[in-house]
Amino acid sequence: MTIADTEGERAIVAVLKKKFPEHGFIGEEGTQKKGDYTWIIDSVDGTYNFERGIPDWCVLVALLHKDTVVAGVYWAPVHKVLIHAEKGAGCFINGTRAVVSETSELSKAYIAFNMIDKFERAGLEKQLFKLARTKTLRNMDKWLSFPYFLQGKIDARIHGPPHFWDIAPFIVMTEEAGGVVADFNGKPATKDSKTFIFTNKQLLPTLVEYLHE
Amino acid sequence: MSDTMAEFLDVAIDAAKKGGEVLMKHYQKKITVEMKADKTFVTNVDKESEEVIMTTIKKSFPDHAFFGEEFGKTGQSEYVWLIDPLDGTHHFMRDIPHFAVLIALMKENTIIMGLSYDPNTGHLMYAERGKGVTIEGETAKLSTVAEVNKAMCSFQWLVGFARAGLAKELMDLLGHITASTLLDAREQHQSLLTGKIDAMITAEIGIYDVAPYVLMIEELGGIATDIRGKPMGLDSTSFIGANKELHGKLVEFFT
Question: What is the ipTM of this complex?
Answer without folding.
Answer: 0.77
